[in-house]
Amino acid sequence: QVQVAESGGGLVQAGGSLRLSCTTSGRTFSTYTMAWFRQAPGKEREFVAAISSDGRNTDYADSVNGRFTISRENARNTANLQMNSLKFEDTAVYYCALRTVLASSWLGRRQSQYGFWGQGTQVTVSS
Question: Measured between alpha carbons, how far apart are the two ends of the chain, in Å?
Fold first, then answer.
């Protein structure tokens, strides 16, 4: 069973930055596409960003494009989400998700496409 754990959440003022990390116990980390989703209070979980297993392709939701950057360090079984210029509406629980892929360039935005999930980390942006 693959275990996924997020870290790095916290409280930050609007305009500030946070860096989230996602680590996994999987021994084949380099075969996972990794993604971040988030769920704000009273709202459905939504896609934030994804990075292909080879690290060459990324995808971002329009709401975070230009402010957030997703990256990965395969040697450390870690994916990161650098969040800059945070806004109040970025407040949410952020989840890391993984999918085993055969195509190293694959990316997906649907929750159903990912089979492994972390427990989430809270990000709170004060206005």
Answer: 40
